Amino acid sequence: MRVKNLILILGVIVAYLGIIVYVRISNDRTIEKRYYQVWREDYIKNQSENEQYVNAAGKNKTPFALSEAQGYGMLLAVKAGQKHLGSQTDFQKLDNYYLRHRLSNSNLMSWRQENKKGSLQDNPVSASDGDMMIAQALLEADKVWPGHGYKAQAFKLISDIKKLESNRSAKIITVGNWANKKSHFYNVMRTSDVMPEAFEEFYQATGDHSWIEIKSQMLTYLQQLSSQHKTGLVPDFALISRQKQASPAKANDVATKDDGNYSTNACRVPMLLAASNDKEANNIVKKMLKFFKQKE
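Structure (tokenized):
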């Protein structure tokens, strides 16, 4: 009799724990789905029946689009698709917008589209961070929804990133296609372009080892910048010397008075490093997180 009672009690405990686990998983999924829906409601805009873009202006402001925002949006759509919270149609509409707003004779996306006279007009240059995130999203989309040509698109974009948005001598990704050999900005590195996970994925997809070399060298530059301050914080932009040494940009060297500070670009660095399993990336981000923790 005691054995039967013990079995009954154990059965009740197992059932109870099973219910708790199910409720927890179900609740987490509900929260994720709601967050994705709210994000789409607040930021996704229809350009046409088959095209959507991420409104970088946010709610209640004149809409404009950025390749960085489009890249983030496409990555989010893929993540949602992996968890069956979003659809392939969601992703395809974002992809269609990217395809329509590529630069002439290139697979790079126009950096910015502003509303002029009722339509979004392309800026004639690119931004490397946006292009890399779009390429990442296309590679992941091919795994989630194979057979839609996403991998072929990704290969073309990755090829153009290497051809038009890299400095092969310094082994960095430049800030955009406008920062060419004839430009003062050819040796400028934007710290938010240090995307070790993206470089690893590009190598795995293409077999081109130069992506590992770029990853390694850009992390070395980032480590140099991190070691220059006890906080481990890095600036928005850095200048790379012929001796392959990185130093913070000065105010207004590239874009704003905060070019040499931890600001709107560099604030993305912790997330980008944390996504990688690279040991050097982990060491750099741990130093930054230690500083942040002290400021709680």
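Residues 180 and 186 are 5 Å apart (CA to CA). The chain has two domains: 1-164, 167-296.
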